[in-house]
Amino acid sequence: MTNTTDTVMVPKDPIRPDISTTAPARLATRLAFFAAGFAMACCAPLFPFFKENVAADKAQFGALLLCLGLGSLIAMPATGMIAARRGARPLILTGGYGLVVLLPLMALAQSPMALGAALLVFGAFLGAIDVAMNVHGAEVEALEKRPLMSNFHAHWSIGGFCGAGLMTLLLSLSVPVLACACIGAATALIAMLIARPCFLNVTGKEPEPFVMPRGIVLLLAALTCIIFLVEGAVLDWGALLIIDRDLSSPKNAGTGYILFSIAMLIGRLTGDRLIAKAGEFATLVCGGLIAMTGLGVILLSSNLIVALSGFVLIGLGAANLVPILFSAAGRQNLMPPGIAIAAVTTTGYAGLLMGPAIIGFLSDILSLSIAFWLLALLTMIVPLSARWVVSQKNRD
């Protein structure tokens, strides 16, 4: 692997790297995560208006939203292959600028076919920047020789809060939907333009155009899928679980996910320091057990306040698990890091997409509570696998 940089110099001292030299690349990575999370979150308040523009019913719009996930799943493996040979920088820029262009185009769509095509391409750009910015984050982390990935992922959450909040505010002020989309796109564009000159220029020379995921990469992908499965279940079924257990009325049931999101953001903002002090092994074990405990608290509690504390525990426990897994994928030497991170990202995203459907299927056969108990048992795999994840055999 050959590293060259424009504005960022690789530190000469391999033991005590000068992190000031990689500060611009660190900032660029945070801005990329922010821009991607911001652009994605802008869509949530706008989706009802997109649905109205194309006169789609609920079933049709649900099918259209599948195009978003399909586009991401198609783009992620391809991004990994390209990043392994060309580096992450051009793919981050392509994905980021693509999101900027597609956000207003979705607002302009006047037919289901046009909206579906826009969602498909938007999802592809989202998948591309998702993989590429994680590859870049792993490169910066390797140069600085300290945990950074949790903070990078926290900026996705910050972008999400800002994007959803800004769109909600603008819509409440009766700003036209197209104008809202353009303002959101302009904000994401500013972040990308600031980041553009600061990315590392890293290119690879792997002779293989594609390497099938294997060994530790398969384990990392499976664990990521489990964690995203939990996150998807909390997002789509958490409120219904509270209602199903007669702990809350529908109007207050969404509080659980809000607390989960806040706890995860706090956990990721403090995660790098925690990982540096406690180590990845302890963080994986404790994080997995805390997330399991949170699920158990929700399922066993008979009091709403206690149940809501379970959502906080899940958020705190799961916060740093995925960043650690991405870091491990980036430093393993079994296959090109770009392809490894693409495999982990794709599998995790598949878990996020399939999770709600799997929970719904199990709930129909068994019950929603039993489905969540099975999810808690599945989460046990994370702490049980921690030793393999942090094994020195998986490091360069």
TrEMBL record:
It is found in: Membrane. Residues 217-396 form the Major facilitator superfamily (MFS) profile domain. The keyword Transmembrane helix applies. It comes from the Bacteria. Keywords: Membrane, Transmembrane, Transmembrane helix. PANTHER family: BYPASS OF STOP CODON PROTEIN 6, INNER MEMBRANE PROTEIN YBJJ. The lineage of its organism: Bacteria, Pseudomonadati, Pseudomonadota, Alphaproteobacteria, Hyphomicrobiales. GO terms for molecular function: transmembrane transporter activity. Pfam families: MFS_1. CDD domains: MFS_MosC_like (cd17393). The chain crosses the membrane at residues 31-50, 62-84, 91-109, 115-133, 154-170, 176-195, 216-240, 252-269, 281-299, 305-326, 338-359, 365-390. It is a multi-pass membrane protein. One of its GO terms (cellular component) is membrane. This is Predicted arabinose efflux permease, MFS family. InterPro entries: MFS, MFS_dom, MFS_trans_sf, MFS_Transporter.
